[in-house]
């Protein structure tokens, strides 16, 4: 059932010296009116950072994929963000569930305001699972870059501490949800949010950890 992720792990590390990018990240497009298209420079910058610091071979041009599309299975790492409503139909929820069980990985980043909606949507995908907050000792915080206190705080939001939640299927993290953190804003071009270089570096380092964790777990 994990063939999708196994093949991509080979591409992730096995094509470092290839002339053409071996792996493409994807942005999840969903219904409900939420701005799924937020942070257009985030994934290209994250890919560039990973290629430089993890020696990966990720295409800087990301794909956009509908949650209910068969094309979802072409991408082992899918990123989801937004500020508002998220709605999955029954068919879309089933498609996303099959993708994740088959070895796919979903990173959800609350860009502020999507939390109550994404929790309902993901409950439709995995009604039997509950979100588990990952402890600071979890491997995702201790890959190439170490975050002893968990997620870095990129933007204020409601001023609460950032939290990292996971949906775990048969021992594997299939979905990682970053809340009160705003990593994606930290990945964007500097002039978009005027974050300091230190803040942007922390965001990109944590993003690189998530990418690395997704393919190595």
Number of helices: 7
CATH topology: Rossmann fold
User: What is the highest CATH level, the class?
Assistant: Alpha Beta
Task: Assess the beta-strand content as a share of residues.
Answer: 15-25%
Characterize the structure shown:
α3 (90-101) links the parallel β3 (77-82) and β4 (105-110). The chain has seven helices and seven strands, in the order αβαββαβαβββααα. α3 (90-101) packs across α4 (115-125). The protein has helices at 3-14, 42-53, 90-101, 115-125, 183-187, 190-193, 197-216, and strands spanning 23-29, 58-66, 77-82, 105-110, 132-133, 163-169, 172-179. The chain has one domain (3-216): Domain of unknown function DUF4159 (Rossmann fold). 35% of the residues lie in helices and 21% in strands. Strands 2-1-3-4-7-6-5 form a seven-stranded mixed sheet. It has 217 residues and is of the alpha/beta class.
């Amino acid at each position: 059932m994990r063939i999708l992720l196994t093949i991509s792990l080979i591409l992730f590390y096995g094509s470092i010296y290839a002339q053409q990018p071996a792996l493409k990240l994807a942005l999840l497009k969903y219904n409900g009116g939420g701005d799924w298209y937020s942070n257009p420079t985030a994934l290209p910058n994250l890919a560039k950072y990973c290629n430089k610091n993890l020696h990966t071979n990720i295409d800087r041009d990301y794909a956009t994929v509908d949650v209910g599309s068969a094309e979802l299975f072409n991408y082992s790492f899918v990123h989801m963000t937004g500020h508002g409503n998220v709605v999955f139909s029954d068919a879309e929820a089933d498609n996303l569930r099959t993708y994740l069980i088959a070895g796919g990985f979903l990173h959800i980043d609350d860009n502020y305001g999507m939390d109550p909606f994404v929790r309902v949507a993901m409950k439709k995908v995995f009604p039997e699972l509950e979100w588990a907050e990952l402890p600071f000792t979890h491997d995702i915080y201790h890959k190439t870059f170490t975050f002893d206190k968990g997620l870095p705080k990129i933007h204020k939001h409601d001023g609460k501490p950032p939290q990292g939640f996971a949906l775990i299927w048969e021992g594997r993290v299939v979905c990682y949800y970053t809340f009160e953190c705003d990593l994606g804003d930290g990945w964007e071009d500097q002039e978009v949010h005027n974050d300091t270089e230190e803040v942007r570096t922390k965001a990109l380092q944590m993003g690189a950890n998530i990418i690395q964790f997704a393919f190595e777990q």
